Amino acid sequence: MAILKDRRILELALKGLEAERDVIASEIAEVRAKLGGKIATWKRRRATKAIKKEVTKVVMQKVASARKMSAAQKKAISKKMKAVWARRKKAGG
């Protein structure tokens, strides 16, 4: 029974992804039409690389800013870990 549920979930996921792909493909076609047809392959590749690079940069900035801890947080974690290691040492482990 679990195998049937897993299969059904995968089938639904596939349908959803295919629907998203179709929407994205139609949006790409609209943008290409607005640009006046096809863009040369090398230009498209260069643009794609530049976009990926920019997106990566923005994502990494968000991740870096989201993961910063204050000095007080670092000190609290340090204090807790020192206590853990002291207990472990005292227990003989």
Write up this protein.
There is one protein chain. The protein is mainly α and 93 residues long. The protein folds into 2 domains: 1-38; 39-93. Helices cover 87% and strands 0% of the residues. The protein contains 3 helices and no strands. The longest helix has 34 residues, at 2-35. The chain is flat and about 70 Å long.
Query: How much is the average pLDDT?
Result: 79
Shape: flat
Integer count of domains: 2
Rg from alpha-carbon coordinates: 25 Å
Order of helices and strands: HHH
Distance between the termini: 46 Å
Total strands: the figure is 0
Low-confidence stretches: none
The helix tally amounts to 3
**Which sheet architecture does the biggest sheet show?**
none
β-sheet strand percentage: under 5%
Portion of residues within helices: over 70%
Structural class: mainly alpha
Structure characteristics:
93 residues, mainly alpha, 2 domains, 87% helix, flat
Summarize the structure.
This protein has 93 residues and is mostly helical. The protein contains three helices and no strands.
List the helices and strands and how they pair.
Elements: H1 2-35, H2 41-66, H3 71-91
